[in-house]
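Subject: mismatched residue count in predicted assembly?

I count 613 residues in my input, but I want to confirm that the predicted structure covers every chain. Input:
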Amino acid sequence: MMEKVLTRNIGADLKPTDLSAYEKNGGYQGLKKAMKDLSPKDCQDLVSASNLRGRGGAGFPTGMKWSFVPSGENCTPGHKYLVCNADEMEPGAFKDRLLMEYDPHQLIEGMILAAYTIGADLSYIFIRGEYIVSIQRLRDALAECYLKGYLGKDILGSGFNLDMYVHPSAGRYICGEETALINALEGKRANPRAKPPFPQVSGLWGRPTIVNNVETLCNIPHIIDRGSEWFKSLGRGEDSGTKLFGVSGRVKSPGCWELPMGTPIREILEDCAGGMQDGLQLKGFLPGGGSTDFLVPEHLDLPMDYNVIGKAGSRMGTGTLIILDDQTCPVGMVLNLIRFFAHESCGFCTPCREGLPWTRQVLVDIEEGRGTNKDLDTLAFQINYIGAIGNTHCALAPGAMEPLQSAMKYFREDFDRHVSGKSCPYHSHQKSLSNKTSGVH
Amino acid sequence: MNNSQIIQTDMTGILTQEEINQIDTELAHIPYKSGAAIDALKIVQANRGWVSDECLQAIAKHLEMSPEDLEGVATFYNLIYRRPVGEKVILFCDSVSCWVCGCDNVKKKLSKRLDIDYGQTTNDNMYTLLPVPCLGACDRAPVMMVGDDLFTNLTEDSIDQLFPDSNPKDNQ
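Triage response: the counts match. Full output below for your records.
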């Protein structure tokens, strides 16, 4: 059995961890150690040396991200901000909810340490509004921290001041993009910003800002408390630490488990999720959420490491696998994803605002048996045009093209059968092909 | 909060003092008034269920924004309602994992039972049905929220249990 790190306070009984339970199990040791013995520079060095990579999906090295924040003489006087991205909305991702609902103090300790490292005095947990339970438990935990002196003025006598707020979002997938998130925090429409300037130098209210994912921040207390070498030793492959991996779709036991980085996909799918439901075969899977490329059974023995999954043509993303079985239509699944991304486009740039609904309509036609070979050419064009980074303002539309391009690569025969047979060859799966997704706006 | 401030900022008396107090609490850690736009919309909506034109104008005035600017913000976000909604909003997840696990049939059953499609409210004003981006409970798909509560592992039978048919003859 591997050592549980991020989920050590999350038992089978799913009892939420309050301050006393968190401290009883070693909680706030990292904070006490840092406030007493470590400078911000020491903390920065520990995190950099740990090779922790961002768990929100992009896998950017956390220490490097932090190192871009100006400090000392390089920084003009004023606030610096630490923001936790708790806007978990990637289709198929369900890991941050677990960490926040059942161990809110782990996230808060990670945020205090991150804020201390970069010199932030204000911090926000930007959380999706639908996470009602998480919002309440985080607010309760913040109140406990203020009473205990872990937040507020002169934390544990160190002279370090930090205030923290929970900011429930008003919705929209695009808020997960860090500059869109910052605009939302500023009370604006959540259109992503042009980069540069990067948030590390000019983010919230034009001040230096770090935005980190929930799971990334939950790793920090352990790295500070137990060191970077220990953290690196947790991984089975080239990446450090553990990771929450999840499986959804028609498997026997869908769920979310903490496993070492570098765990082979087969172990996650077969040992943890119990394999496919009876009568179903694995056809393919999205390894890290709705905006990652399909992989297929031949990839099952690859370890879940950022670079390995990247070399295989996909991304590890959030580490939450979505399973496509052999009785579910790949065209229908891609249509569902493209419909989602078309709906969630912020509308700022033309390839995304116009291109995604166009792509959706082509897929509707193919799925409903009206598709032609020319439609398949149109999809190939869209993949090349919308999928190219640089043609769009942000990564939403290129991300949307990832499942489409890989589906056309691995399941091309299915697309062709829709066109030649003039109908969807999958009958077991009832599809709603209504284009109506209008809300009350 | 003193009364003179309320008179200055909301001369029409549309917003309640409690709403204004809550908005001003948010303003304490925000450097520009317009920065509280989304918070203010959410505060008023939490109190009234939705944001009317009158409320939107009152909030805009309080935050020293143009109503048009605030409207641009309000209509961007799917959890801000600019039309009246039922007592409870049903946020139905139709994203990929729920779709693979058969949410379309659950949605059909739900729509039939309540006689509403996305964007509509039941005649008795109890429920408004809206689609929502992935609710982050994909291991328990299909899922939906009814008001503040999450319902998981949905089947057509669970719709029967959650919304008993008041007129069983319609349900052959």
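Residues 1-8 of chain B have pLDDT under 50 and may be disordered. Marking this ticket as 'not a bug'.
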